[in-house]
Amino acid sequence: MTEETIWGRNPVIEALRAGRPCNKIMIVSGSRGSMGDVVGLAKKKDIPVQFVPHNVLDKLTNRANHQGVVASLSPKKYVSVGDILAQAKSRGEDPLIVVLAGMEDPQNLGAIIRSAEAAGVHGLIIPRRRAVPLTGTVEKVSAGALEYMQVSRVGNLAQTLLALKKEGLWVAGADMTGELPYYEADLTGPLALVIGGEKKGLGGLTKVCDYLIRIPMRGKIGSLNAAAAGSILVFEVLRQRLLAQK
Questions:
Q1: What is the pLDDT of residues 56-98, one digit of tens each?
Q2: Fewer CB atoms inside 10 A, N or C side of the chain?
């Protein structure tokens, strides 16, 4: 069976709480007390725990900040776009989907997943090619939020966005040339929010978007990285939706 390695206290704990099948957990020897919550969850689920030297985990994680714990488990499963729409419907909410165009930095992807989950996003869509997949680094940076976020991997983002339009979603692209400041756009309805990659931005996807929104800048730096921009925008959607409920 294919295995995936994740590391860090929060990612491992959330993976166990979410019920992802886990084959074993490795903990640095001598850290039993500080890892009591991890060990307790593992015992409840009958998951083997091994205590190993620090350098073993360093090697497994390529010297990442593993915080003394690594889990070997089944890979995170991708879902269909239909599954994401179904989740929004089951919650009785207008769909909010974040579409990431060519994001190659796992740090950015993990950070966006963390913000998106906190803001109530129903799912993420990423392309199959020229984009980072769901890795251990993504899981670590997301601080466990990946366990609660549905992610769909598609072959053609433009066609997927057109299909979402047919389902009644508006498609808003985040672009520094956007005609609307993000806080002036109506983001309360069914929405697919498209965020560009680090190198090429939205590229040709601007032609598929219903409108483009921008984050105004006052300093000398002309743009934010994708994770920072995405965080601002998903919480603006949440703010508008909460106000609309009053």
A1: 999 988 888 898 899 998 888 999 999 999 999 999 999 999 9
A2: C
